[in-house]
Amino acid sequence: MSWQSVALIVVLVLLALLIYFLARVRYLFNQWGSSQAAVRRQHRWHTGVVFFRTDALEWFRVASLSWRPALRLDRRSLSINLVKVRDDIATARVGDAHTEIDMAMSCQAHTALVAWADSAPPRGDWVLF
Asked: Mind telling me which residue stretches traverse the membrane in this protein (predicted)?
């Protein structure tokens, strides 16, 4: 096999990966109920897309090839604490029983997050009497 054939194969593989990556990003950003949000873990911010599912908040990294969420927070034990608002970007400390992260998003997305969390069905362990 000549070096031109190897170079062509490498270029085709890289092109296929690029097309796959761009299709994934387009799919994530065009989903209903998605919003752009950055997550900070261990002092580094990562850009991503957040989804408000029925039972959990799911966050996908943009710079990834995986179709699985990089972060999943349970809706029933979700806590949201607004840290600051600056230049129409809200930064909040968001967590569940197992994970706590910083999340930056637009003020509109933060309002949607709080409304989504507040509208969760009541937990089964509550007792009225």
From this structure: 6-23
